[in-house]
Amino acid sequence: MNYYLDNEVLKLQLSHPLMEKIVKLKENNFEYAKEVPIAPVDFEDAIDSYHKVLEIVGEICGDIIAPNAESVDIEGVHVENGRVVYAQGTQENLKALTDAGLFGMSLPYKYNGLNFPMVPYVMAAELVSRADGGFANIWGLQDCAETIREFASEEIKSEFLPRINKGDTCSMDLTEPDAGSDLQAVQLKATFDEQTNCWRLNGIKRFITNGDAHIKLVLARSEEGTKDGRGLSYFVYDTNDNAVIIRRVENKMGIKGSPTCELVFKNAPAKLVGERRMGLIKYVMSLMNSARLGVGAQSVGISEAAYREAYKYAQKREQFGKAILNFPAVYEMLYNMRAKIDASRAILYETARCVDVYKLWQEVAKERQLTSEERAEMKHYNKLADALTPMLKLMSSEFCNQICYDAVQVHGGTGFMQDFPVERMYRDARITTIYEGTSQLQVVAAIRAVINETYAALIEVFEKEEVPQEFERIKFELNTMRAYYEHAKNLVSGMNSDEMLDLHARRLVEMAAYIIMTYLLMFDAMRCSCNCCSLKESARHFLRLGKAICLGHLDTIQYSSS
After folding, report:
1. In the chain, what is the greatest distance between 2 CA atoms, to the nearest angstrom?
2. pTM higher than 0.70 for the full model?
3. Which of its termini does the chain have fewer beta carbons within 10 Å around, N or C?
4. Does domain 9-165+281-433 match CATH 1.20.1250.20?
C-alpha cells in the first residue's frame, strides 16, 4: 500500500496557487539547476520531483513503517551499555528512509539535502505519522538541522548538516526536572573552557525525545548569576564525544518506540549556536514553532490512520443483520472524524505555506536588500505564521485525541484490546496535546492574535473571496459565525478584566479557529476536481460543528457577563 497515492487530498496541497512563488524562491528562480544535477529546471519539474519523492515516502510508510508499528510498540526501547537501543522495527525504518535519502529533505543541496520547501516536507511528516506516530518523532526531529542551518556558523553547518542525509538523528534538549514548560528556569550550566577553546555542559535534562540522538541542540545557562531567559544560550553537542550518560528511559503511555530520556551532561564539550543570551529568546522559539508545525502533521497523520481503521471496521462488523456503518450513531461519528481531519489538514498546509514564504524571503534578505513590497510580504506571512501555528497545534492535537477516542468507540469492546491498531493510536495520540507546549499554552500564544485582530483581519480577507454558487450557503453561515465571534470579543473586552480574558481565551480562540478552518477547508474543496474527494461534504459538516460550538461559547460568555 502506498500512503501517498491512496490520498488524493494530499496532492491538492501541491497545486495551491502560492506554491509557484514558494518553489521559485526556494530554487533561486531555478538558478541552482545550472550547477546541481538534481535541481529542478522549472516549476512543473519541481512539483513532479515532490510527487516522486512523496511516492517513495508513501511506499516505505505503507510497506515497512506501518507493518512494523505493532512490534515496535511491544518491544519499545532499552538502554544497553549507556546507549539507547531502538526496537528492531525502528532500525529497519531508519535504514529504509536513510537508504532512500529521505533525511535532510529540506536542507540545501550543498549539505546533501533535497532543498524541499516546508510543504512537501510536512506532507512527508504526515505520511510517516500515519504509519507510526511514535516513529514520526525520531524522523521528524531532523527539524533541528533547520535551526543549525538558520543560525549556526558556517563551520558548524559544514560539520553537522551533511551527516543528516546519512541518517544521523537529532534531539532538542530543553526541559529539566524543574523546568518543563517554564524554560526560563533552565539551570544546566555552560562554561567556556579556555584551554580547549570550547564550551562545557554540566547538568541534567529530562523528558528528552530521542534523547540519545547523534546531534543534540541543548539549551543551557551560559551567563553566571542570571535567572531568566536572557541568561540562556544554545549549543550543539556531538554524541560521539561520549560525555552524556543516559540515566533512564521513561516508560510511557504511548509512542513507545520513541525513546524519552533523562540525561546527565558531564563536562560535555559543545559549540555555541549563534549569539550568547539568544538561546531561548530567538533560537528555541524558532525551533518550537517548527516543532509545533510537526506536531500538527503528526496529529493529522495519526487521525487519518485512526479514521481509516474505524471506517474499515464499521464496514465489516455486522450487528442486528447489517454493517454498523449503516447505523446513524456510527456514521455520524465517522462524518465528524472525517470533517475534523480535513479541516486540520487545511490549516496544517496553510500554516506551512506561510512559514515557507516568510522564511524564504529571510533567506533572500541575506543575499540582497529586499524591496519594500518584498519586505512587507515577508512581515505579513511571518505574522500569519505566528498566529496560525498555535491555532494549528491546539486544534489538530485536540481533534486527534477526539478522533482516536471515537475510533476506539466504533470498534466497541474490541477497540480496547491490543489486537487492534486503534488501541495503540489512542495511546499515541494523547501526548500531542501535551508536548511542544500544552493546549493551554497554545491558547496563551493564540489569544494575542485575537486581541491584535490578526484573526479578524484574516477572516475579513477570506470574506472578500468570491465563491461558486454551491458554496454560497457556507459563506453566509460563516458570516453569522463571525458575528458571534465579534459579539463574544466585545463582551469579554467590556468586562475589562484580565482574569475574565484568561477564562474565556480558549473560547475566543476556538471560535476564530472554526471560522478560519472552515474557510480554508472550503477553499480546498473549491480547488478540488476529484470526484471521490470528501472535501465538499466535510466543509459543510465542519461548518455545522463549528456553528454549534461558536453559539455555545457565545452563550457561556454572555452568561458570565450578566
Report:
1. 80
2. yes
3. C
4. no
Triad 510, 456, 341: Cα angle to 5°: 40
pLDDT tens readout for residues 151-168: 999 999 999 999 999 999
3-state helix, strand, coil in the chain (%, to 5): 65, 10, 25
Spatial separation of the C-alpha atoms in residues 528 and 507, rounded to whole Å: 31
Location of C-alpha cell 478552518:
517
Q: In the predicted model, is pLDDT for residue 532 greater than 60? A: no
For the chain, the structural domain boundaries read 9-165+281-433, 170-277, 450-561
Fold (topology level) of 450-561 = Four Helix Bundle (Hemerythrin (Met), subunit A) (1.20.120)
Look at residue 200 in the predicted model and tell me its pLDDT: 98
Residue 519 to residue 539: CA distance in whole angstroms: 8
80: enclosing H helix or E strand: strand 78-80
* Confidence category of residue 531, pLDDT binned at 50, 70, 90: low
Cell of 68: 512494523
- Residue 8 is classified by DSSP as H
Q: Quick check: 337 and 406 in contact, CB under 8 A?
A: yes
β-bridge partners, 271:
236
Q: How much is the average pLDDT of 525-549? A: 89
Question: Would you give the DSSP letter of residue 369?
Answer: P
Residues 399, 402, 408, 412, CA torsion sign: negative
Quote the radius of gyration of the chain (alpha carbons, Å).
23
Per-residue pLDDT of 323-346, as tens digits, reads 999 999 999 999 999 999 999 999
Instruction: Give me the residues paired with residue 318 across strands.
Output: 323
Instruction: State mean pLDDT over 28-57.
Output: 97
d(Cα 121, Cα 502) in Å, to the nearest integer? 35
Euclidean distance between CA atoms 279 and 174, whole angstroms: 10
Distance CA 482, CA 254 (A): 38
Distance CA 43, CA 386 (A): 28
Query: Do 272 and 233 touch, CB atoms closer than 8 A?
Result: yes
pLDDT at 529: 75
> How many residues does this entry show for the chain?
562
Q: Does residue 28 come out as left (phi exceeding 0), alpha (psi in the -120 to 50 range) or beta? A: left
Q: Which CATH class is domain 170-277?
A: mainly beta
**Residue 436 DSSP code:** T
Q: State the pairing for strand pair 198-209/260-273.
A: antiparallel
For the chain, the average pLDDT equals 95
Whole-number pLDDT of residue 180: 74
**β partners of residue 261:** 208, 249
Angle, helices 454-463 vs 439-451, to 10°: value is 70
Strands 189-193 and 232-238: unpaired
Q: Cβ contacts of residue 124 below 8 Å, gap of 6+?
A: 53, 54, 57, 102, 105
List the end-to-end C-alpha distance of the chain, in Å, as a whole number. 57
Task: Please answer whether residues 307 and 403 qualify as being in contact, where contact means their C-beta atoms are separated by less than 8 angstroms.
Answer: yes
